[in-house]
Amino acid sequence: MWLFNRKGPSGFSASTTAEEVTEGIDGTGLTAIVTGGSSGIGTETARVLALRGVHVVMGVRNMTAGREVKEAMVKGNPTAKIDAMELDLSSMASVRKFAEEFNSSGLPLSILINNAGVMATPFMLSKDNIELQFATNHLALESGREGRIVNVSSRRHQFSYREGIRFDKINYPSGYNGLSAYGQSKLANILHANELSRRLKENGAEITANSVHPGAVATDLFHHQSFVSGGSNNMLRGIASTS
Ligand SMILES: NC(=O)c1ccc[n+]([C@@H]2O[C@H](COP(=O)([O-])OP(=O)(O)OC[C@H]3O[C@@H](n4cnc5c(N)ncnc54)[C@H](OP(=O)(O)O)[C@@H]3O)[C@@H](O)[C@H]2O)c1
C-alpha cells in the first residue's frame, strides 16, 4: 500500500488516476488517436482525453464494441468529441486504410497513443503472415506541428527471449514462448520510440516519441493466461504484476 501511494519525481503515484494527472489541462483543438480504445486502458485514456476537450479517434477492430464505448462516453460527457474508426492492427492493409481515412478527415494529429495489444497468445500468424504479437504490438506502429507519440509498452520488455529480438526467427513456431514473444514485442516498442525520437529530433520536428509501462491493470489482456499458466491463479497474479 505504501509503494502504491509513494509519489515519484512527477508528483504522481501508482494510485494517481488519469483524471488527476490531466486536471486543469485544456485539450481543446487537439486531436488524439487511441488504438484499442474499445476496452481496458485504451477506453480510460480515450474517456479522459475527451473530458479534457481533446477530439478522440479510437482505432478499433470491433466496431460494435467501439460504438458502444463511444455511446457510453457521450452519455457521461455530452460535449465529448469521440469517433470510432475501424482498425485491425494484424493487417497492414487495414492500418493503411485507417491512415488514409484519418488523413482525409482533415483532422490534425496531435497525439498518437499506440495502446492496442495482445499478450501471450498461442503461436499464430497475422493476416500478413507475421507472428501475431510482433505484428499487432509492434509492426503496426509505423508511423510541423508539436505532437506526442506514446507507445504503450510494458515492463515485460525485460523478459524477451535471451537474444533480445529474434529478428531471424520471428515466425518460428518451434521454441515459441507466449510470454517471451510478448516481451519481445514490448522491447520492440521501446526501441522503436527511442529511434523515432532520435530521428524526429534530427529532422527538427517538434514531436516527441515516448514509451510507457502503464502498471498492472486488471483488463482483458490476460485472457490467454490459461494457455500460459495452465490455470494457476498464483501464476496469473504473478504475470499480471509484471505484464
Ligand atoms: N493491463 C496491464 O496490466 C498492462 C501492463 C503492461 C502493459 N500493458 C499494455 O497496455 C496496452 C493495453 O492493454 P489493456 O491492458 O488495456 O488490454 P485490453 O483490455 O485487452 O485492451 C487491448 C486492446 O487492444 C485491442 N487489440 C488487440 N488486437 C488488436 C488488433 N489486431 N487490432 C486492433 N486492436 C486490437 C483490443 O481489441 P479487442 O477488444 O477487439 O480485442 C483491445 O481494445 C497493451 O499494449 C498492453 O500490452 C497492459
TrEMBL record:
Name the UniProt record assigns to this protein: Uncharacterized protein
Domain of life: Eukaryota
Pfam families xref list: adh_short
InterPro entries: NAD(P)-bd_dom_sf, SDR_fam, TIC32
